[in-house]
Design a protein that fits this description.
Structural class: mainly alpha
Distance between the termini: 70 Å
Number of helices: 20
Largest sheet: 3 strands, antiparallel
Helix content: 55-70%
Strand order of the largest sheet: 5-6-7
Radius of gyration: 25 Å
Order of helices and strands: HHEHEHHHHHHHHHHHEEHEEHHHHEH
């Protein structure tokens, strides 16, 4: 007797593939246009671009990051690229290298100038909108909701600004979104094959079908993307751990749906090991490979940093005075240079020491510093403290087209702040998603809940060091997914005209229109447009935004 398919194995039917891809590419084109518009302005290093743009150029020129001369910024902005390096000694970089290599791609094709070090972020930001359309469409079965999801990501101010800067956070968010989208595709891919195989098996054979799908191309893709996310910023580790557990829970649900006995135990062994290889092992290999340039030049790092203050660090007292021990250094510092495979393992051990030093820097040496724009993570979703990326103050009337009154001035600013209506609505959507996931047992809501918690909760335990609201950019994609799923619940399952659908359409449509209007209102302070001081103050809704 052929077993009857369990509803939990069902995959949503989606509309025309051509329409779906056409809609996704259209949203991506709009997003790219908004992000590339006057991308080279301001023509200077904005915020932490001064680190990442130059590090990327050094990677491109040397294969590893070397130190720059003190006036390197002025030389670069002036178009002079000779004599930028102080020595051939490496620089102590405190973030992995994937994001900087991605910035370097833009610099390779467009040169070492603001447009060159920002174009990769613009491309990636637009691609995120394409992925969002595809992901939401897969989760809801609706191209319309997919477009809404892509547009909301496109119309967020924080996403827009990060897509117009040579910083790392947009690349972290991109690889995380790509990894999660690949896991969702893998979930559907597996269930579709289970349904086909169930039709030709008896109930006894069906119970062991899951373990036969041992090779999962989309899960492998997710592992690669997670590795690239971690290779951009270490915080991607939290997402890998959280979604690894969630993916295992999906496997356990599939086993239960086909009638497997003791699904948790079977899934932990039969599914857990392949999943660990596809995700964790692959991510680890990709992450290690991303340090190839470092490994090739490991001897330079051994010479420069094997006895640095971070290597010799012992403790830090309440007054932020570090205690070091001159006897401490990397174990590879005094070893003779190896050759062949021994050279690789020696370089790898040096890289482990280097990671220890970077961890020491992040967890100890930043605890005693402060920053004007630092903020507490519990207020990120409410936009408690934006970050001023660039500002040109006191532009006199008549200069640059300033139309301010004689007793006032104009200014230009790039402010890293999300679209308020979108973020406030998204915060409510995440709360609803938590209840829908647990109360209604709707697996789809687990994605935004797990993603948001993984990229927010760890920062609550790191509030001794300066942290910034734009770290929440990795939360934003999950907020958008939550909003789209909540809209789906508001509209209901009926396709025909009903009172609920009419009211729901008005509510959801009004929210989308408000986000669009909010985006247009804040556009000048995201794109360095000229504003009078009074026009600028009209956009500073709270004193903490100034």
């Amino acid at each position: 007797m052929t077993p009857r398919p369990d509803p939990r194995l069902a995959v949503l039917r989606r509309e025309s593939r051509l329409v779906g891809w056409g809609a996704a590419l259209a949203v991506g084109a709009l997003a790219f246009f908004l992000r590339v518009w006057k991308l080279g302005r301001p023509h200077e290093f904005s915020f932490d671009e001064t680190y990442y743009a130059k590090d990327a150029w050094s990677l491109l020129q040397h294969g590893y990051v070397v130190r720059y001369v003190e006036d390197a910024n002025d030389k670069i902005i002036g178009g002079q690229l000779d004599g930028l390096w102080d020595t051939d000694r490496p620089s102590m970089i405190v973030h992995p290298e994937v994001g900087k290599w991605m910035i370097a791609v833009g610099e390779h094709f467009f040169g070492m100038d603001p447009f060159g070090w920002r174009i990769s972020a613009a491309v990636v930001g637009a691609l995120m909108c394409v992925i969002m359309v595809r992901l939401v469409r897969r989760l809801t079965g609706s191209t319309m909701f997919g477009v809404v999801g892509g547009l909301m990501l496109c119309l967020d101010g924080m996403h827009l600004v990060l897509s117009r800067l040579g910083l790392l956070d947009i690349f972290l968010a991109f690889w995380l979104l790509a990894a999660v989208a690949a896991l969702v595709v893998d979930r559907d891919w597996t269930r579709e094959r289970l349904l086909v195989r169930l039709a030709d098996r008896d109930p006894g054979d069906a119970r062991d079908l899951v373990r036969r799908l041992w090779f999962r191309p989309w899960r492998l893709t997710a592992g690669i993307c997670f590795g690239l996310a971690i290779g951009t910023k270490w915080s991607g580790l939290y997402a890998l751990a959280a979604f690894g557990i969630l993916a295992w829970a999906w496997e356990m649900g599939a086993r239960r749906a086909i009638g497997a006995r003791i699904p948790m135990m079977r899934s932990a062994i039969v599914d857990g090991i392949p999943a660990f290889v596809h995700l964790v092992v692959v991510a680890g290999l990709v992450y290690t490979a991303s340090w190839t340039g470092w490994l090739i030049h490991a001897e330079k790092y051994e010479e420069a940093f094997s006895a640095s203050q971070y290597a010799r660090f012992v403790s830090m007292d309440a007054n932020c005075n570090a205690t070091t021990d001159d006897r401490l250094q990397w174990s590879t510092a005094t070893e003779p240079d190896a050759s062949g495979f021994g050279e690789f393992t020696q370089s790898l051990r040096s890289l482990i020491h280097y990671h220890h030093d970077v961890y020491t820097f992040h967890t100890n040496f930043l605890n005693c510093s402060e920053h004007t724009y630092q903020s507490q993570p519990e207020g990120w979703l409410l936009i408690n403290r934006p970050v001023g990326v660039n500002v040109e103050n006191d532009i006199a009337p008549g200069e640059q087209g300033c139309t301010a009154a004689a007793d006032s001035t104009c200014l230009r600013q790039v402010l890293l702040i999300g679209t308020p209506i979108l973020w406030w609505g998204g915060a409510l959507a995440l709360i609803y998603a938590g209840f829908a996931w647990v109360g209604r047992r709707d697996w789809r809501f687990g994605i935004p809940v797990v993603g948001a918690l993984a990229m927010w909760l760890p920062w609550e335990f790191s509030d001794l060091r300066p942290i910034f609201s734009f770290y929440a950019s990795a939360i934003l994609p999950f907020t958008v997914v939550a909003l789209c799923l909540v809209m789906g619940h508001i509209l209901g399952p009926d396709r025909g005209p009903t009172l609920r659908r009419t009211v729901g359409t008005i509510v959801c449509g009004s929210f989308v229109v408000l986000v669009l209007l909010n985006f247009a209102w804040f556009w000048p302070i995201w794109t360095n447009e000229l504003l009078t001081r009074s026009e600028w103050l009209d956009r500073m809704w709270f004193s903490r935004w100034i």
